[in-house]
Amino acid sequence: MHSAPMPALSVTIRPCEENDLSAVYAIELDSSASPWSFRSLSVELSYPFSRMYVAEHRGEIVGFSASWNIIDEIQLNNIAVKAPYRRRGIATALLNHLTQDHEGERLLRVILEVRAKNTSARKFYRSLGFRETGERKNYYGDDDAILMEREL
Q: What are the residue numbers of the active site?
């Protein structure tokens, strides 16, 4: 059972830099059932079509997101928040920043995949206007992927 959300925190969202990757990797290791490697995060940061952001609270990196621009879509590849800061509006702030940063690029939607068993993430995305559009059986080996999208 989840407790009620705590008050939202004030965070600064900025582009991720190479020297942020150790903090991002620590959050990733603590947040994901199948975490990205440090090298994968570093490669992601180097792609010209990739956008990686970090959320800072009082100088501490407390969350991050990674996405791609693919033609007319934003593909959200990863988003995570440090455990003590979850349910404080940080993932919402990252997603809001992501869509605002792409303004003027004629993007039509945000798409993502989420583990079928990750019911809290699915509920979170639905609360932000995402809808489930399909599934990929055994995508994660031990779980299906639910495809979700939100029109911009």
A: 113, 125
